[in-house]
């Protein structure tokens, strides 16, 4: 009799607790359990200006001496990307990223959260002038940035030795850009670009593009002291990448 009372009591408790498998006369509760996962946090744009190079950093990296002028930083979203090259204006289109800096035609199709850039002129009256342009683009995720960098690196590889023809509506206002010396590092790709407009060549631009986390750095450097040597652009790109890595 005591055994029957114990079984009945256990069955009652199991019924209250919505099911004990194997209890006499109590069916198991096989209803699906609904779990609400926390929503993934949306990516947030961050201030990028602190990661841009300052004048002392550039002077030290490029050995130009203390004299130099740093332009004001420009910061915003995708709207501050440059539009020097419009859609369909350049051939081959895949080589625009190597020939021209921070273009909307290159980054515009990607999930860009934030953009910052500035320019700089170094050297002095008794030294060769050196100038540079430095951009940072924050993508929606580190994965997006890595994918973009991989795509661009492959484009630069294919564009080595190619000439980009840029067409303008005005006759005689077009430009040819010869891409050479494409080189690859662990996180930076670099190239030399010679621009020729109306038959006149400009100083060779040294281009470098790198990736750190969810950010892409985009560098153009003109340094007559090191013709055909992209190490200066790579060093500046590495400086920006290190600042991003240490500041995030």
Structural write-up:
The chain is an alpha+beta fold. Helices cover 27% and strands 29% of the residues. It is built from 6 helices and 11 strands. The protein has helices at residues 2-16, 55-62, 96-99, 104-107, 142-159, 231-247; strands at residues 68-70, 74-76, 90-91, 112-122, 130-139, 163-166, 175-184, 188-197, 200-201, 205-212, 215-222. Strands 1, 2, 3, 4, 5, 6, 7, 8, 9, 10 and 11 form an 11-stranded antiparallel β-sheet that branches. A hairpin with a 3-residue loop joins strand 7 (175-184) and strand 8 (188-197).
In which range does the helix fraction lie? Answer: 25-40%
Proportion of residues in extended strands: 25-35%
Please state the CA-atom Rg, rounded to the nearest Å. 29 Å
Low-confidence runs: 1-22
The average pLDDT value, as a whole number, equals: 85
Q: What is the structure about, briefly put?
A:
By secondary structure, the protein is of the alpha+beta class.
